[in-house]
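Subject: PTS N-acetyl glucosamine transporter subunit IIABC structure
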Amino acid sequence: MLSFLQRIGKSLMFPIATLPAAALLVRLGMEDMLNIPFITAAGNGILGNLALIFAIGIAMGFAKDGNGAAALAGAIGYLVLDSGIEAINKDVDMGVFAGVIAGVIAGMLYNKYNDVKFPDFLSFFGGKRFVPIITSAVMVVLSFVFGNVWVYPQAVLDSTANWILNGGELGVGVYGVLNRLLIPVGLHHVMNALIWFDFGTFTTEAGDVVRGEINRFLNGDPSAGYFLAGFFPVMMFGLPAACLAMYAAAKKERKAAVGGMFLSIGLTSFITGVTEPIEFSFMFLSPLLYVVHSLLTGVSMILAFVFDVRHGFGFSAGLIDYLLNYNIAENPFTLIIIGLVMGAIYFVIFYFLIVKLDLKTPGREDEEVEEGSAESESGDYDAKAYHYLHALGGPENIETLDYCTTRLRLEMKDREKVNEKELKRQGARGVMKLGKRNLQVIVGTSVEFVADAMKKQMEGGHHLPEGMQDEKVRSVKEEAEEASPRKVKEEDFQMPLNGKVLPLDEVPDEVFAQGMMGPGFAIDPSEETFHSPVNGKVLQVFPTKHAIGLELENGLELLIHVGLDTVKLDGEGFEALVESGQRVEQGTPLLRVNLDFVKANAPSVVTPFIFTNAEGATVELLKKGYLEKGQKGVMRVEEGGLGNE
């Protein structure tokens, strides 16, 4: 049941995405703005047909491939259901529920019948064309059922709505707490849909009846906006203050690493009202803080109600919506005062709890669980998708893949195969298990691009994208692996530049030092140009130019990662001298580095040399200390052993 409700919550993101456009049109056309009535009417054209839009969006979300045939079936299903119910009992008004029901059923019917086959004389009606037909038939039956029995659940819903809408500060407070508490399981969208789009009615001057808190507020209902106003202090002030508290409580040596992240997600919350990047940064590390945050959200809702503040949004309670709807709000400036108070409360409580209880918020993690890698912050979604799929046990381990605003929603065949540590190392903010097979991976606001890249690789083959690995070369290599032992002889590797050779366990980074990336060693360089130590091919020049991947002639892959945490330099101080796919020989110039700049702006210039696909092989250092460019006999790789010697 939880998984089913989550799919509804995820699917609601399609129609909810139309709200900013609708709200903007409604506001711009009003008298205090552009005073162009037809623009307001155009926006209300969206808001007045939310049930139909929900049916279309949810059907697409439920469909296994998001096909337009499911969307058409959702629309037809809603029209049949709504018209049938009206013919039976005009007093029955299912509101957005009719759209939700039609969308869910249309999506499920699409998944079952999209490839159905009929005899030749009926073949035209087979496959996807059959989905709207069967949906119509099912909706005829449901319209008869709901037309006769919906009066009873409608009475219950009406009484619930009346309690919430007329419950004063208790009603808005309970809603605020539940709104946040349901985010981890993704069910807040389901509850929001009821409050925002269904509860309450208002008749406009033109005689149109509108439903839901957002629609009523935008159309001038003097009783609407109480269930929206209290979010502004939290999203514009409270959560950014929580970021400041987590930064202040971070370990001194980690402040620089987490400061940029906190600034970015804090500004995102303040300006746009998108809070999940902040909430997921501490939700799993410290559930106690998240419970406190939920309670404080309820407090903010109550304060806004007590001070008679009505405000609303079309997208979320950030600065943009605050300013856009300022002129139609009631006592909007009071939200700034409440926000400053809530910000101070958030900072004090968060800082006190983090320090007093030693909560492991970002920047305070124990060394053994600190995350982060050079690749985890890359904007290369194809590369990130590759690593995510690998950490999830491969495409064959994924039953279904969906996403919402900030998270991947997955149903796994075997959840035990999931490598949570690797997911977090690749940039995931958290991993949440639901039921026996469901999994959510919190990615952030780039989740759509990551999910799309993952789906492409699941359909087209799980492999590193162009520039990281050539599939033809890979296939040849895989065929020859059994015949070609993965060895590197003493003469096959030469020093790429002057520098001090170090064993891998002396690298001041846990990921490399423990061999998590693979066996290898490191060099502390004393000159600026890195040359190829081997004969082979360039697999990848990273976009930030801080690392280069090489493929040796025997198929072994060598990663040269210049410095530690240098991805954050965004390419400054690095000059690539080769391109992906280029053949190289020992001594070919690969990369030029401004060592003085890197030393001043990165934790270290120590450069790991990692054999990333040498599982079960031993990297033996034959020489250590200072060596000169071109010198051989430095190391060798042998099959077997424990990885490093």
